[in-house]
Write a structure and sequence with these properties.
By secondary structure, the chain is of the alpha+beta class. 23% of the residues lie in helices and 37% in strands. It binds zinc ion. Zinc ion is lined by residues 1-2, 285, 315, 319, 338, 341.
């Protein structure tokens, strides 16, 4: 997902705590594994109401399975039945749950299909957008679109609405004649009904998390292209086709770049990008069918905004590898989706526009995080100790700090090892879920290095180092003495001292030399023998660790 702007919440909440470790447990226990959802949705537009008919096919994970608990918010169930027998089942709802009593005891060898028929007036998940009218004339038709992340899917279909459960999906969405429905996966067919409405049937044959299920209903023109064998669809409002080359003209370069870098082909059978009105984010990586705010896409009409649109388009596409193929196991691990998608924006820029543009992007992300972090009331690590399933998790730590830390990780293990490790990580966990430890394992195995220190300070710790450098030069011995202090506030989540392998470039009246500083403690002293008076020092000239603030005090010359 890409946010427009960042909002911080300041209330506190209580986390479930694991009895074994005493640490908060962000995972959700599962008693069954959903295999497939069949979603049939019709609309009552004047009342912003839906008629839902969802079949959930699942397998129990243990014996003595009798009760199914699914997430369901505001769904008014008419019938719940075992299919294909059509045996009516008892159910009850409580809070945002529906509990279904099965007809007998089942075991992991069984596959159970439950059909739910219901109505709802969704407060979340499905959004009805009215037509835009100017002087009595419609200038943009009405739309209906979904937003699943973080946990909004259960506001329109009963589901295990948590990223750790992956299932295939199929949708039958009924729209007015003349409208288009964009859904996940392949369009199997369109059927005209007796009332003149048209039902679009989409099928997504690769398992994915529920938050990636989506549809969009509205009046669109589809501009088609093809990358290798993958059909690309760009859905824009009628008459607005000219925005396609400006906003999406580099899409194929992005596919090529991400395939080359990860050495993993685009994992799905199509990629659609659709603009919608009043979207709550900049973009959302719904599987094979990214949704984007029309305002963001139309910004491509202006030269100054084109870079931002390019970042948005590459960010959402990068999620096809980081987020959709391998998915964070819980919301505390969201940085594994968003940090990587943010980093891949820069990696794409590096391929297309060179190292300087890559560094500019990383630097700007790092700066944005540092500025925000200084005033943030709810600071957390990349592993988000404050995670809860709402919009608060989409913040500059998860995105911008995530991207900048991944850059430093790349610099720490080296380019070749970094990309090879990412290939291992993606291949090993494809179509599954990941935690930070999975990434760490892939990097440690590939590099042969212990990276415990790196993950402890940059992923589990909050904040970034703040360095104060005092320089003292003795002209007699031609020695430069540097005192480097870490002055970041110690608060329990920010590391007291970061381990910082930094390079320093020292310019003197007689030349330039580069030295290594191994900073480990809160205060470190270094001395260097020089060939003349230092005129300038540059810390981390190659910007391997952009997440830091440095203050270099003026040079002091020792008088005796
Ligand atoms: Zn994203």
């Amino acid at each position: 997902m890409t946010a427009f702007s960042i909002i911080f919440f300041s209330f506190t909440f209580v986390l479930p705590v694991s009895a074994q470790t005493g640490k908060p447990n962000f995972n959700r226990a599962q008693t069954f594994d959903v295999q497939h959802y069949i979603l049939r949705i019709n609309f009552d537009r004047p009342n912003k109401k839906i008629y839902g008919d969802t079949t959930v096919r699942l397998k129990p994970l243990s014996n003595n399975f009798k009760l199914i608990e699914l997430d369901a918010a505001g769904l008014d169930f008419e019938t719940v039945a075992l299919v294909p027998e059509n045996k009516i089942l008892q159910f009850r709802t409580s809070g945002e749950k529906v509990y279904v009593e099965l007809d007998k005891i089942y075991s992991p060898e069984d596959t159970i299909s439950i059909r739910f028929v219901y109505t709802a007036m969704p407060k979340k998940g499905i959004y009805f957008v009215d037509a835009e009218v100017e002087n009595g004339k419609i200038i943009r038709d009405s739309q209906i679109w979904t937003q699943g992340e973080a946990e909004e899917a259960h506001h329109w279909f009963p589901s295990f609405d948590f990223p750790s459960d992956k299932a295939t999906t199929e949708q039958y969405i009924t729209a007015e004649k003349g409208e288009t429905v964009v859904g996940n996966g392949e369009l199997i067919g369109q059927t005209e009904n007796s009332d003149g409405k048209v039902t679009f049937h989409y099928k997504m044959p690769v398992p994915h998390s529920t938050y990636l299920v989506s549809f969009i209903v509205g009046k669109f023109v589809k501009v088609s292209e093809i990358y290798k064998t993958i059909p690309l669809g760009f859905y824009v409002y009628p008459g607005k086709e000219s925005i396609v080359p400006k906003a999406y003209g580099r899409a194929k370069n992005m596919f090529r770049t991400f395939e080359e870098l990860t050495k993993i082909d685009y994992p799905y059978n199509k990629y659609d990008q659709t603009m919608v009105a009043n979207f709550n984010f900049g973009g959302m990586e719904n599987i094979t069918a990214t949704t984007m705010a029309d305002t963001e896409i139309f910004a491509a009409d202006f030269n100054f905004a084109q870079g931002g649109v390019e970042d948005l388009v590459s960010h959402e596409l990068a999620h096809s590898w980081f987020g959709n193929l391998v998915t964070c196991k819980n919301w505390a691990e969201l940085w594994l989706n968003e940090g990587f998608a943010t980093f891949m924006e820069a990696a794409y820029r590096e391929k297309m526009y060179g190292r300087q543009d890559y560094l500019r992007k990383i630097r700007s992300d790092a700066k944005q995080f540092i500025v925000d972090d200084a005033v943030n009331k709810n600071r957390h690590g990349l592993f988000n100790q404050l995670a809860r399933p709402d919009d608060s998790i989409f913040d500059t730590t998860t995105y911008q700090k995530g991207g900048a830390v991944i850059h430093t990780l790349r610099e720490t293990v080296g380019d070749e090892v970094f990309w090879r490790a990412l290939n291992v990580y993606l291949n090993r966990h494809k179509f599954g879920n990941v935690e930070t430890s999975d990434l760490q394992t892939a990097l440690e195995e590939t590099s042969g290095k212990n990276l415990e220190w790196f993950f402890r300070q940059w992923v589990y710790g909050a904040g970034s180092p703040k360095l104060d450098v005092i320089q003292l030069y003795n002209p007699k011995s031609k020695t430069l003495r540097l005192t480097v202090s870490q002055v970041q506030k110690v608060d329990g989540i920010t590391p007291e001292s970061f381990i910082l392998p930094l390079e320093i470039e020292i310019k003197t009246t007689n030349g330039t030399k580069t030295e290594k500083l191994e900073i480990k403690n809160r205060m470190e002293n270094f001395s260097f023998k020089l060939n003349g008076k230092p005129t300038e020092i540059k810390l981390d000239k190659n910007e391997k660790i952009p997440l830091k603030t440095v203050r270099i005090q003026p040079l002091v010359i020792q008088s005796k």
